[in-house]
Automatic annotation (TrEMBL):
It is found in: Cell inner membrane; Cell membrane. GO terms for biological process: transmembrane transport. This is sn-glycerol-3-phosphate transport system permease protein UgpA. GO terms for cellular component: plasma membrane. It comes from the Bacteria. Keywords: Cell inner membrane, Cell membrane, Membrane, Transmembrane, Transmembrane helix, Transport. Belongs to the binding-protein-dependent transport system permease family. The lineage of its organism: Bacteria, Pseudomonadati, Pseudomonadota, Alphaproteobacteria, Hyphomicrobiales. It is a multi-pass membrane protein. It comes from Pararhizobium antarcticum.
């Protein structure tokens, strides 16, 4: 057995240097600045500041509006992940059965992922706008009092659908890849043994998709917490009456709109801790139920 020795000792570090620089500049430096700003109180113009320690964190965690934003975020994240993953799995299983035109259908289903979040939000807003939306008109015509600009539950439903629609394509790609990786001999053996339809899917196919499902659960959780800002900003602006104000949108509101920089920085640190803890929890407990082939 021969060992491979890399002759140049400096080149590996040079190859890694761009990624290290990007990580430091765009992750570690902003994170350190957020941590510093979360412990100071400064005026809106940044002319003077005073160290207040953990006072910003205490104020945030005892603020009823922040607790409300946390509750909204939990509901929004769960609904977005369930809808996007459920619909993507349904579409992936349907596309996997198509014999003719597989590539065409898969390409159509992948396209929405290329749409920017803000654009995706505006598309759904135009369709369901109570003043001009075509689908809003159809809902009202069929007796549904549709007005997401005034009804908080309807606004939440609208942003969940928009955020889930944006993420379905991403989930679809991975579910299709997972389905293609399942040996056809297992499906044929299950069919011979009498497993049909839903029973075969839930007892044979879905357990084999467990690694893919777990990965997408983690990705969709992070997506719902961070990447849906553009959708919420363009569709509801956090309203009505803060019914769709998630944690990341509250960070923006307090920091960039109300210019409460210390509170906004403290919220960003808490949000980062929540996502890290949630991801660690998923890897610690949820992954135990995942079986890798």
């Amino acid at each position: 057995m021969h060992t491979v020795a890399f002759p140049n000792k400096i080149l590996p570090y040079l190859l890694l240097a761009p990624q290290i620089v990007l990580t430091i500049v765009f992750f570690f430096w902003p994170a350190s600045q957020a941590l510093y700003q979360s412990m100071v109180r400064q005026d809106p113009f940044g002319l003077k500041s005073s160290f207040v320690g953990l006072a910003n964190f205490r104020n945030v965690l005892t603020d009823p509006s922040y607790i409300h934003a946390l509750q909204v975020t939990v509901v929004f994240s769960l609904l977005t992940a369930l809808v996007s993953m459920g619909v993507a799995l349904l579409l992936a299983t349907a596309a996997d059965k198509v014999v003719r035109g597989q590539g065409f259908y898969r390409t159509l289903l992948i396209w929405p992922y290329a749409v920017a979040p803000a654009v995706a939000g505006m598309l759904w807003l135009f369709m369901f706008n109570p003043a001009m939306g075509t689908l809003a008109y159809l809902l009202r015509r069929n007796g549904v009092s549709w007005d997401p600009l005034l009804n908080g539950d309807q606004a939440m439903a609208l942003v969940v659908v928009a955020a889930a629609w944006k993420q379905i394509s991403y989930n679809f790609l991975f579910f299709v890849a997972g389905l293609q990786a399942i040996p056809k001999s297992l499906i044929e053996a299950a069919s011979i043994d009498g497993a049909r339809g839903n029973r075969r899917f839930w007892t044979i196919v879905f357990p084999l998709l467990a690694p893919t499902t777990f990965f997408l659960l983690v990705v969709n959780t992070v997506y719902a917490f961070f990447d849906t800002f553009g959708i919420i900003h363009s569709v509801t602006g956090g309203g009505p009456a803060k019914a769709t104000e998630t944690l990341v949108y509250k960070v923006y509101n307090d920091g960039f709109v109300n210019l409460n920089l210390g509170s906004s920085a403290a919220q960003s640190v808490i949000l980062m801790i929540i996502v890290i803890a949630l991801t660690a929890f998923q890897f610690r407990f949820v992954e135990k139920r995942v079986h890798y082939g």
